[in-house]
Description:
The complex is a heterodimer of chains A (about 325) and B (about 270). Chain A has 15 helices and two strands. Chain A is mainly alpha-helical and about 325 residues long. In chain A, helix 6 packs across helix 9. Chain B has nine helices and twelve strands. Chain B: This is ABC-type polar-amino-acid transporter.
Amino acid sequence: MSLDTETPERARPEPIQAVPVRHPGRWLAVAVIGVLVAMFVHMLVTNKAFNWSFMIDEMFRPPIMAGLRGTIALTICSMLIGITLGIVIAIMRLSENPILRGVSWVYTWFFRAVPRLVLALLFGNLGILWSRIEFGLPFDRQIGALFGVQDFEARLFGFSAMDLLTGFVAGMLALGLSEAAYMAEIVRAGIQSVDEGQTEAAQALGLTRGQIMRRIVLPQAMRVIIPPTGNETIAMLKDTALVAFIPVSTELFFQLKAVGARTFQLFPMYVAACLWYLVLTSVLLVGQYYLERHFSKGVGRSGRAKVKLRGIVAETGGGASKADA
Amino acid sequence: MTGVKVLPQAGPPGAESRPMVHAEQVHKSFGSIEVLKGIDLQVRAGEVCCLLGPSGSGKSTFLRCINHLEKINAGWIRVDGELIGYRERGGKLHEMREKEVAAQRRSIGMVFQRFNLFPHMTALDNVAEAPTLVRREKKSAARERAAALLERVGLGDKLGNYPGQLSGGQQQRVAIARALAMKPKLMLFDEPTSALDPELVGEVLDVMKDLARDGMTMIVVTHEIGFAREVGDSLVFMDGGVVVEQGNPREVIADPKHDRTKAFLAKVL
């Protein structure tokens, strides 16, 4: 046909060579930010108050490292309590039993209302209430008196409150119990985000309510629960600094503060605290990424998590542009 | 093959008088709105019963009452002679415990309009999950049976795929295999092809026809008149929460007696 002979003449046109729009605003911003960064770096280097060599010397000392381990342990323990109890409270909140619903509401109300620092101090001083913590028949003395027995005691075992409620345990309980209240809300939102059809399909197959929760609903709720839980873990890591006031000595901030107080070099030690928390938080961010990828299994096509990672990298201004170049 | 059981009265040999599903005077209200106003229905073992009717007529609700996903307010439903959701003791009805209801549901398979596959599990695990959890089958045995069932619905090459990687028609076929894995004596289909693209409807209907040929008792809520005419042993037309007309599907479709049936069929045919 005639088209065939014409096509060579209708060749692909030249690519457009237009003058791009200029962005003077960007250059202005670069200049302003450049000056500010230069000023900041200059201050970091020249200001003697930072006392960098002293700080680097001190921040890896054994007591600090012990404090670091304590902070990590406290974060893990508190989050374990928080997540486990949070799931239980969330399930109670969604239960058909009105008493369980009420209890979980009161719990959430109390632990969300009281600041963590206050809770930590309260738990650290529980020893004032009891010298010993014992387990056995409740109200044994009163029951004994009812039947005319004086000083009737039915207690199986007990601990000295001072032994049991060490600073670490008190801090762990305060942070963990308070965390459970927040986790309960997160888990509840996650459970409610799962389509009702999932429960119906599982019911129609003859699964019991417990099996449906464990095998069908919770694994799917995880996708919604994990990201805020990551944020909670990071917040918890930082909140462990509060237990320095109980006081808990095997804790990072307590140790850094102690070095600072002893050497009258508080400021460098506060900077060291910043750096340590930055490092720990960054490690957690990596863990959160892998967890999220694991639980997004079966959602969307397989490439989705990778695309998301690329997005994060691009946002932080790293690899993506380099890869393009 | 389907020609053998033209009349519902005939049924497969040996099961003449045994009703698989027997419902009487079933009423169901959501709040102040009465959705079912006294449904009577009998479905014999091996019979394919198609429920037809305009949307909002209560056919899906009735289907969900049969496996107790909805509690009925009055009347009763028996499946294979067993009262659903309640136990009779000393002339009184006792509500069943959740575990007993779950046990009753095991023998009733259900297929949903929107598939409701478990998105976090592969096709194989979707099918093998309930047999391992509920029937306490060994994991390896359950998976073997699941693979065979998926093969039967034509998905032998999709065992490892997640639902999100399957087309609507494939997902619905996995859902049918999932229900069959519990070895049910009754299958409920709630508009199984309504959420599918037109070109995918056929593959799902083929699987259902295959099931009917094998003698499965089925209650199918559907808008597929062709399926009802070809495979159905009985047709029940519902409107406004009551059964308006029922009978042999070929006769009802060819010569509806009731005005509402006529009007409905005129619109869908």
